Amino acid sequence: MSADLPFFRYHPDPLASGSIRASAETCACCGRGTGWIYTATFYTADEVGGRFCPWCIADGSAAERFAGEFTDSYGLDGVGEDVVHEVTRRTPGFHAWQDPRWLVHCHDAAAFMGEVGYTELAAHPDALDQLRADLRIEGRYDEDRLERFLTHLGEAATVMLFRCTVCGTHLAYTDAS
Questions:
Q1: ∠ CA 20-21-26 to the nearest 5 degrees?
Q2: SS3 labels along the chain
Q3: Of 102, 126, 110, nearest to 175 (Cα)?
Q4: Distance of alpha carbon 83 from the chain centroid
Q5: pTM of the complete model beyond 0.85
Q6: Euclidean distance between CA atoms 127 and 111, whole angstroms
Q7: pLDDT averaged over consecutive 10-residue blocks of the chain (177 residues)?
Q8: Contacts of 140 by beta carbon, 8 Å cutoff, 6+ apart
Q9: Partners of 172 in the beta sheet?
Q10: What are the residues whose beta carbons fall under 8 Å from the beta carbon of 78, sequence distance 6 or more?
């Protein structure tokens, strides 16, 4: 199929994140070979005999047909049901070691920008400062260990980077194996 990929407000570049890739596979929902296939999570009690094309994700038909979600609603507190529905049922999820969660800012779901290490995170000081504060609140690290942990991101732990769709602030959380 030569059409451009659908736009996902809350996951604007699913090719870069690896959630969608070029493939000759046919979609388990529509049966078409679109040239693209979804590769990340899908949660359902139903048996699904394959993966989905981006169009069946975008229009909600894959989630409806197989009674499933592409991501859990964990973390989506304080947003409307329409946003929860769009993120969980009409937006590609992403690969994570632990259960993925979606971040919220300005009463809207944030846009997933990708998995990053320290170098990429440092380019977004707002996200780095927020992550430092979150890790301090958790009390898992003294200051030296916290900085050592952050500067070694990309080894045993990575960061999921998001951007607020309202104000542009970057947000992050750590994901470890």
A1: 90
A2: CCCCCCCCCCCCCCCCCCCEEECCCCCCCCCCCCCEEECCCCECCCCCCCCCCHHHHHCCHHHHHCCCECCCCCCCCCCCHHHHHHHHHCCCCCCCCCCCCCCEECCEECEEEEEECHHHHHCCHHHHHHHHHHHHHHCCCCHHHHHHHHHCCCCCEEEEEEECCCCCCEEEEEEEC
A3: 102
A4: 14
A5: yes
A6: 13
A7: 81 96 97 96 92 98 96 92 98 91 96 93 94 84 84 86 97 87
A8: none
A9: 161
A10: 104, 107
The length of the chain in residues reads 177
The residue type at 91:
T
Type of residue at 22: A
Q: Which residue has the tokens 């094309």?
A: 53
